[in-house]
Amino acid sequence: MSALSAGKIAFQGELGANSHAAAKAACPDLEPLPCQTFEDAFAAVASGKAERAMIAIENTLAGRVGDVHHLLPEAGLYIVGEYFAPIHHQLVGVKGAALADIRKIRSHPMALGQCRKIIRELGAEAVKTADTAGAVREIAELGDKSVAALGSTLAASFYDLPILRADVEDEPHNATRFVILSATPDDADLEDGKYITSFVFQVRNIPAALYKAMGGFATNGVNMTKLESYQVGGSFHATQFYADIEGHPNERNVQLALQELKFFSAELKILGVYKAHPYRNLESSATAG
């Protein structure tokens, strides 16, 4: 670890953003390093300015976070952990404002998508911003009682603004999954517990290649928790897949499944092997119940 990176964790957004809160909770010993974009956060780790990055990758209500899956394979970084953060959005106003005053609500597109009910209830216009904490800062600077923001309790406290209504997310199970990135691989050792292996791959240009590539996971009893596709290189003919599986590459059934995947793939890159966050157990219990 370089002197530059000592004790820092990069995240996209301003101080007070949900990513900042997640970084504090998951890595309390690391100093937060706010970055304007995901690219900047990745670059901070790659260049040695930060030891880790905390990156939002998907949300239970709004789905995957745009661009992250494109950036991950090209960033040269490795996933060394995951963190699930319950997300509670606060409707933040300026001092003296009331709910009846609100005509515009500013926030990150993901937050706006998670709080459609309150926006519709107030008949407000949704205004997209770069991040939630930035939206709170902007309304503090505007001082307009008709403009509110969706942000965290941390951001409201940071700018000393009142919360007009608490926990306005559409569903109580709203949570965001973050991945913790490092410039060097740090795969978890196989011990007791549950593991996640993340990877990207492109299948060979042969008939039913994806079907055949996926068959190894089914026949070897490996649970695939995520499979997403996206175009690469600006071509409709080049498709890359991002996947998460439950298991460790040192387990025999996972080895066999990955071998079969590799046989039918033109490219396969493991992004990380890490311990599953306890939230996965809670989610499985809720689904089973």
Automatic annotation (TrEMBL):
Molecular function terms, GO-annotated: prephenate dehydratase activity
Pathway field: Amino-acid biosynthesis; L-phenylalanine biosynthesis; phenylpyruvate from prephenate: step 1/1
PROSITE patterns membership: ACT, PREPHENATE_DEHYDR_1, PREPHENATE_DEHYDR_3
Top EC class of this enzyme: lyase
Keywords: Amino-acid biosynthesis, Aromatic amino acid biosynthesis, Lyase, Phenylalanine biosynthesis
Domain ACT: 198-275
Gene Ontology cellular component terms for the protein in this record: cytoplasm
Reaction equation(s) it catalyzes: prephenate + H(+) = 3-phenylpyruvate + CO2 + H2O
Xref: InterPro entries: ACT-like_dom_sf, ACT_dom, Chor_mutase/pphenate_deHydtase, Preph_deHydtase, Preph_deHydtase_CS
Matches recorded under Pfam families: PDT
Listed EC numbers: 4.2.1.51
GO annotation, biological process: L-phenylalanine biosynthetic process
SUPFAM superfamilies documented for this protein: ACT-like, Periplasmic binding protein-like II
Record bears the keyword Lyase: yes
Prephenate dehydratase domain sequence ranges: 8-183
Site (Essential for prephenate dehydratase activity): 176
PANTHER family for the chain: PREPHENATE DEHYDRATASE P PROTEIN, PREPHENATE DEHYDRATASE-RELATED
Name recorded for this polypeptide: prephenate dehydratase
Organism: Candidatus Phycosocius bacilliformis
Source species taxonomy: Bacteria, Pseudomonadati, Pseudomonadota, Alphaproteobacteria, Caulobacterales
Gene of this entry: pheA
